[in-house]
Every structure is written in structure tokens, then in C-alpha cells.
Amino acid sequence: MKDGGRLSAAIEVLTEVETRHRPVQLALRDWGTAHRFAGSGDRTVIGNLVFDALRHRGSLTERLGRDDPRMAVIATYVLTWDQGIDGFKAAVEADRHAPEPLSAEEEAALEAAREAQATGAAAADVPAWLWPSFEAVFADQAVAEGQALAARAPIDLRANTLKSDREKLLKKLAHVSAGATPLSPNGLRIFAKPGAARMPHVQAEEGYQKGWFELQDEGSQLVAALGLARPGQQVLDFCAGGGGKTLALAASMENKGQIFAYDAERLRLAPIHERLKRAGVRNVQVRDPASSRLDELEGAMDLVFVDAPCTGTGVWRRRPDSKWKLTDKALADRLDDQRKVLDAAAAYVKPGGRLVYVTCSVLPQENSEQITAFLERHDDFGAGSAAAAWSAALPGVALPRYVNERGDVLLTPASTGTDGFFAAVLQRRA
Ligand SMILES: C[S@@+](CC[C@H](N)C(=O)[O-])C[C@H]1O[C@@H](n2cnc3c(N)ncnc32)[C@H](O)[C@@H]1O
């Protein structure tokens, strides 16, 4: 395929996503199934166009003065990918599968957009209804933070210290240009590439198959480290899901002690078994809600790790469609889930033990406000400090920019180069 056909395909997919509310991955997959002649390179370019259009949908709409998927894709190619109007025209002329040529109004809109500056929520590519929350957390950094959440994400890996180490992996993965992450001691990073470029398929690497590394954002590695899980401890990973944090906790416990991996949704746990095996983890018992109970763990855990269900505003780089789909009803539901999860998880912490609360959201309602409300409901708990845990877990690594008075920590793409993650530590009174 040439660029003209790829642009047509991207317009078709984005229209499907926006008018029929199809999840973007499904829409891309269906397009691929219906167009088997398209090679993997074509699919990459089409996917990149669609994802970049979604990342910048707010600012493009404001700069163009029009809101339609065709123009969002064309502007991505012309402006974001820097191909220019002439580049677009050349792509159209060279390919009978290309989109319709630009109308005079469309060309004028693209010309005007080149100079136009979006402001506020649109400049940050943040939905307008969430802008007050962004300003509340980030103040004069709100636009920069939103823009960083609208950029492409790197591929981050975590060296699995049960089987390998970062130094070895840096050598093994030199051919994909993996470098060391700056904050997590076990992290490796392959930087995002611009435009049509394709990222390496790291799951095909020998090291992945053998469990030497996991795919895990550096922010996720860091918040797992704030659990300060140590060999020999009793740990409950209360929202274990597919096990991303479970695996990191097991590595920091050097396979000694016990982790109970639980999730209220049985199906979410499905991938964990295979992942534990590949990573060589031997100290995890998976507790499936359908067939086991947690009663005997009550009041007995050194650490209860709560990787709470959340809106995912911190991972917009990886799921840009989710940012425009988020509703105030969904936010209210997640707040309710978080309250329930926290209250339920608290029962398993032993006197003197810790509860670590994590979200991949940057919204204060899901983060510091949720913790403040928890502390008001539970006088058997006091505030611990995620910042103090940071210093203990990551000696020599400077504290992140966003640390509140209680010591809760917020990571963001603009401030730490990671996905957005929040972590708070709660201490059960002895
Ligand atoms: C952010 S995801 C967990 C991701 C996982 N820890 C990882 O690192 O791969 C949140 C999880 O919380 C689970 N969850 C939601 N409500 C819950 C509850 N009341 N009790 C336990 N788990 C719950 C969801 O099923 C979901 O899998």
C-alpha cells in the first residue's frame, strides 16, 4: 500500500471508532481482517495515524475549527507528521485508493491550523470537563502535563531479577536500542519513534519467552517498589488482575515468603498463571474469588497492595481513545469501587502492617481525596508516607516533583517520564 491508501484506511477506522463507538483496537483488527492484502507495515502506519489523531483530537479540532474524523487524520499527516499540504497532495495524486482531494475550505482550515495555537484544555488535549481537576493538581503545569499524556509512550521493560539482571539484558537487547530507565533500577526503555515508524515486537525476543524480562511501564515498576515487599513477608495483592505488580513484588521478595494474588473478577486473573510460570515465580498463591476465600488472611498481612480500579487517566499515552470516552458516570463508579476496595482490603492488614494504594490516574478525586476520606473512616489507620518509601526503595533517586504534605506521590509523563501513577501508604496502628 502507498500512503494514500493508508490515509483512507485510517479515516475509515477513525470514523468507525467515533460514529459507532467501536473500541479502536477492534476497529483496527476488523479492518485488517477485511483487507488481508495489507502488510504489517501498512497496519503499523494506519494504527499510528489513528492513535495519533486520537491523542491530539482536542487540539486539532480547535486549531482546524472543525470536528470530523477525515480532517483529524489528514491534519495528523500534514501537521503532526510534518508531511505538509504538498505531501498530502502528492500522496493523493500517486494513489487511486487515496482519500478525496482537499476542498478549498479544508485546505484553508489546514493553512490556518498551522499557525493557530489551542489554549487551556484543548491545548492540553484533555476533555474540557476534566480540566478543573488538571488545574487543581498541576496548576501552571496543567497544559504541559496534558501534552505529555498526549505523546507516544516508550516500551518499558522490567528485568526479572529472579532470572536475569539489567546489565545482561542491556547487552541482549542492544539491537532494539534498549537503554536503562533513569529511575527504576531494573527498568529498560525503548524510546517511542515518530511518524510511521514501527516499534519492535519485544514479546518475540528470546528473553521474553524465557522470562528474563516483563513488559512494565517504569511508573508501574516504581509504585510496586514502594510496597517495600521483602523476602519472608506475607503479602496480599488484592487487585492482582493479570499480575503485573504481583510479578514485581515476587521479584523484590526473591521468591521467599508468600504473596496471595486475588482479584474480584476471576477472568482478570486468567493470564497470571502462565506469567508466573514464565517468570519463575514460586511464592504466589492465586486466590480465585469463585473457589477460595480470604478469611484466614484477615489481620495477618505485612503488606496489602491495592492496585485499584481507576479511570486510567495516567495511561492516556497508551490508550488515547479512553480519554474521550471517559464520562462523569464512569468516574463516579470508579470512585465508588475504590472506596469499597480500600475498605475491604483494610481488613487484611496486620496491626503495624501497611496498605499501599495505587492508581494509574492523575485525578485528585481518585487519589489524595480518596486517601483523606479513607483516613476519616478508619481511625485504626494512620498516614504513612510514599515519599519515605521512595527514599528507602530507591536510594539516591531524587523525589518526584508531585509529593503532597502527607507524602503521597504522583508520577506523570511530564515530570518523571513514566505513565501517570499515584501511590499512598497507609499504616495500621499496632
Ligand atoms: C488496575 S487493575 C489491576 C492491574 C494489576 N494489578 C496489574 O498490575 O496487572 C484493577 C483490578 O481491580 C479489580 N477489582 C475491582 N474491584 C475489586 C474488588 N472489590 N476487590 C478486588 N479486586 C477488584 C479489577 O477486576 C481489576 O482487575
TrEMBL record:
For this protein, what is the EC number? 2.1.1.-
Q: Which Pfam families match?
A: Methyltr_RsmB-F, RsmF-B_ferredox
Q: Matching SUPFAM superfamilies, A to Z?
A: S-adenosyl-L-methionine-dependent methyltransferases
Residue positions binding S-adenosyl-L-methionine? D263, D307
Active-site residues, Swiss-Prot/TrEMBL: C360 (nucleophile)
Give the top-level enzyme category: transferase
Annotated GO biological processes are:
methylation
Indicate the segments forming the SAM-dependent MTase RsmB/NOP-type domain, all copies. 145-429
What GO MF annotations does this protein's record show?
methyltransferase activity
Q: Which InterPro entries match?
A: MeTrfase_RsmB-F_NOP2_cat, MeTrfase_RsmB-F_NOP2_dom, RCMT, RsmB-like_ferredoxin, SAM-dependent_MTases_sf
Keywords of this entry? Methyltransferase, RNA-binding, S-adenosyl-L-methionine, Transferase
Family annotation (PANTHER family): NOP2 YEAST -RELATED NOL1/NOP2/FMU SUN DOMAIN-CONTAINING, RIBOSOMAL RNA SMALL SUBUNIT METHYLTRANSFERASE B-RELATED
- Family as reported in the entry's similarity comment: Belongs to the class I-like SAM-binding methyltransferase superfamily. RsmB/NOP family.
Q: What is this protein called?
A: RsmB/NOP family class I SAM-dependent RNA methyltransferase
Q: What is the organism field in this record?
A: Roseibium aestuarii
